[in-house]
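Forwarding these from the shared drive since the link keeps breaking.
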Amino acid sequence: MAHFLLATIGSLGDLHPFIAIGIGLVERGHSVTIATTRVHGPKVEAAGLKFHPIRPEGSPEEDPELAARIMDPKLGPEIVMRELIFPNIRATYEDLLPAAEAADVVVLGELLYSGNIAAEKAGKPWVYAALAPTAFFSPHDPPVLPLAPWLAAIHRFGPAVNAPILNLGSFVTGRWTGEYHELRGKLGLRKTPNPIFSGKISPFLNLAVFSSALGAPQPDWPENTVQTGFVFFDRGDAGAGMQEELERFLAEGEPPVVFTLGSAAVYAAGSFYEESAEAIRRLGRRAVLLVGKNRPPVGLGRNFLAVEYAPFSELFHRAEIVVHQGGVGTTAQGFRAGKPTIIVPFSHDQPDNAARAARLGISKTVRRADYRAETISRAIVEIEAEPSFFKRAEEIGARVSAEDGISAACAALEKVRLAG
């Protein structure tokens, strides 16, 4: 039996895959601690896993103003890095170090750049777990970045064109990482490249925790990369599933259009739900609105149901179309459900996930700035009029459903332990 430390920060979309892998490891006889921010402690413990708190403390769940800034289409990634991650790099390292010392293997999510420092200092093997294709910054399969949405148009031109653009991105973001390099130097550790780009890659193992349907392996991925497929966990508080009221609504009529902003963008919803409701009124359809802590739009009629939360795994496959923000966790659930989607990307990996789903022929993309009732209603009608969206979505759903990402991830992690 081995002890695994799984460390991640961010939204539930960042946490849920680690809970899924953690549960899988426990079922295989190992012990698991999840290190994450305090706000997620109850969720971790409700899943039966050990919880270790780490800083920084701020979270979108507790600070709506922070949520809006983080989800800014252009500045969001820079705000996360320059105001949350790197200024707190020492505090996060100090919190992680004792947990790393007690572990046999350390598994790190995106943004846990202090994690490889803690693992190295503790003398433990560490694994980088990438949840979306954007994480690898491959010029063979270049990401669409929030600061450069035009990258979607040059995707086809190949590495000769894309590599210099990504190199420029590494140079620009490298100026954000001074605290990281300073800490490594003070601890007597070797100098590494930009941790946002190649500096996060592990010499032991890198997990591509997403389906090849979203991003296929590329020739410049690290040789020690294992692509597992998506891993899924979407239980609510204390394991909550579907509400009886939602079950009744679904049973009473045609499959609805489902509107959700996932676990982070929902705190910066703006007029998303009001425009969505108006679009459904115009079309005479039925809709489920997953509104989180937001107030539902006023005047919803019998064709609507607004609820705070529902497990995507139980809801999406009963929808006609799913409209969402494009976070990789929500995108994965949409893929597995086999339903067409409309993606309204906010920031971070969302524009890239939207572009990938559109290239697969299972989704339309609506810019956040263009999200109006007339725009979304037109997109719904266009999908309904084209059977290929539904056929292709079913094919992708079958492909993703056949994957066993949790078993693949656990097996790869066990090999790291044995090699150590």
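-- next protein --
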Amino acid sequence: MNQSLRNILVKLRNRWSFSNTIKQSRDSSVEISGNLIATKVFIEGSSELYVGKGCRLRNALIQARGKNNKIVLSENVFFSGKIEVIGDDNEIRIGENTRINGADLYAHNGTEISIGLNCLFSTRIDIRTTDSHPIFDSDGNRINPDRDVHIGNCVWIGRGASILKGSEIGDGSVIGSMSLVSGDIPNRVIAAGVPAKPIRNDITWKF
């Protein structure tokens, strides 16, 4: 079987398999070159979804509501969990060869989540750019604005970790299980705790 025919069969299976649901609005763009298993996709507004070659999505839910949103899963990504973008001008991007065994990603109100290459995420991980509900001071000014989340290359995140808005995790670092990240984590450290802090420096790890 040549590659072009294989690609056609994959696309037909993704869209028409009983285990998958793909729904998009007229103004949206959905391009899926990977494999979907028990996955639901709902893209509304002028939003884009791109799933690269070699990707595998299993038991996943992807939702986008708003304008000019973009969700990109680069080549050879494995993803299980939930991706949600609400509002306008949000972006979620996952780099090549990253494996996410169970994570919920939330980007709201013009923010982004970027995840680098060759990362490994365990299960029950929560990553969000938002508190979901605004909080105001006595003058009516919002005091909890949404903020971006950036995760570098070759990052390993343990089971049950939470990555809050405004967080940045450096290349090669490891986040311990059940940790809460609420700020900057340097490159090549093990960080753990609530809030997570470096407990070991100058480390490397193998996928």
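The longest helix spans residues 3-16. The mean pLDDT is 92.

- D.
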